[in-house]
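Batch 3, record 17
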Amino acid sequence: MTSVQLLALLPFMLLATASIIVILLIAFKQSHTVIQVTGFLMMCSVILAMWYVRDVLPVAVLPLLVVDGFAAIFTGMIIFSVLVVGLFSFIYFEEREENPKEYYILLFLSTLGAAVLTISRHFISLFIGLELLSVSLYALIAYLRTRNNAVEAGLKYLVLAAVSSAFLLFGMALIYMETGSMEFNAIAQKTGTTLSPLFVTGVGLMVVAIGFKLAIVPFHLWAADVYQGAPAPVTSFIATVSKIGVFAVLLRFGQAVHLQANSLAFTIFAALAILSMIAGNILALRQDNIKRLLAYSSIAHFGYLIVAFLPGNEAGVEASMFYLLAYSITTLVAFGIITLLSTRERDAEKLEGYRGLFWRHPILAAVLTVALLSLAGIPLTGGFIGKFAVLTSGVQQGLWAPVIVLVLTSVVGIYYYLRILTTLFAEAPSIAKKEKVLHPFFYNAMYAALIVLAVILLGIGVFPSGVMNGIKEFLAIGGQ
Amino acid sequence: MNVLFYLSSAIAIAATIMVITRYKPIHALLYLVVSFMAVAMIFLSLGAPFVAVLEIILYAGAIIVLMIFVVMMLNLGSETAQQEKEWLLPKVWLGPSILSLVLLGEIIYLLLRSGTGNASFIFIDSKKVALSLYGEYIIAVELTGFLLMAGIVGAAHIGKHKKKHLHRFLQEEEVSTKIEVRSTKPEDEKQTKPVAYKP
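Prediction for the assembled complex:
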């Protein structure tokens, strides 16, 4: 391995080191606070390293990995999300019955898995990254192991993820059998423009696994239960980091083998997108549990994202990146507020508990309002620009069916987001007396982080050009 | 060579179906061992003896270790041996044995016809495996290490026994042992006191 390759892998090595450092800190019996702060600094250093190495990109670390601008953007988003998730975790796990320290090892390991997904250009690294992500997630979901909901969710995820991994492996085997290679670019060269039936079958089997991880209909059955059962910070991790990683690898694979050029594969993805948008929005309509509601809304959102994946061109990639950025910030804000309002015994997941939140915590209610408006795609928020970019990329390619479904289902979506909003501003049942704030430093840090995130969300909604140019600049680095 | 491949594949599939339809875990494990041996046979017939041996050592070997653990933990005595004899009906061991015998036949066939094998496939020995693992795929090996770490940390957390902190009134056993200790002390004093007062 040359020094340039090592330099390009520096952020990922730092990320891997973070988990080992946490293990060492636990071995030396350091406190939760020390581990939290060290983890925070390590994640910051990963982002700095990514910024530092961007001049040498793109670097291919043959045959498994390639670090380019594309990977840098997605890794940046992943690490950013983990920073926020880590901040949320402190109060949540400090107050719970379990020892919170191993949580950080698993958190950083699964982040490593997601980051490996963004740089993988080979089936082997894809599979190992995906397994690293899901094996850590099994334990993270069931982390509060005395709670029945958490154990049920963890077991459900374990069984279904194992089955989906089997599908993935079989699909890879079929593609390997057809092309004799497991590297994306080599596969593209072998297949040319026309894809054989065996190849498309292999891709179809892989789509089962990818669809499972992204919770696309009809592979979405786990989503609501796992979102509900997992601890709130872990849920936000599943909703952002794991999906960003998997979507990145799907995007890279699609670009490499020109998946969208094949009419059968194109039809499959279009059908998945339409199904997800319809089913996700309809299932969310009657939900009274806010975590389940966000699960169904995430299914719908990934339906929208697949619409941006369908054109298979630069505009689609840029649109999906912007959409993912806005979506992950929004989701982090929403789950951050759930974390902040959760009590020791249970997560704040009942919609009833949010009645009159505005009169108790006006700032939190305002932040949640921004997040919900962004999820609904109301102008002046990041969510609107994201949806607009997705629509533009779809319309340019004349994908009328998915685009029309997108618009119609967005209208349906506004109904249930506004339902939460009306609850927030409704008359409070009784003004509960203010509870004493535990861990004031982390409480205030979290409060500040939520406000900053909401401001960013409004900022990219009002001035999207800065972010868009940034994405274009990074994509230009990693030119194929 | 194709016949061998299909035969071992059929055995692998049959054994695996038996694994998931057995009600008793040990019976399922028997079939699982056969399934792994069949997969090893597939590797062998494809010209990868090293991977075949690894398959036997790592997977089949691990299961044997598991069985030994079960036997150890149950702490069986002499009367269970009698019970075991009654339970070990032919229908339990006949299936796995027949499948294993077929595999054995395949290996004997392969050994006897050695030297006349066609060279249509590449022979993969341990050196080639090592070179590719620690050469171009070194990052994959390292990442697998992290994967194992995730598995171990996760399993350790989920399986950890929590220390019970009982209230002191609830700690009956400890309290009763303390009382016993106290009650023995005066007796000792009684025995020693007369001796002490005599002079």
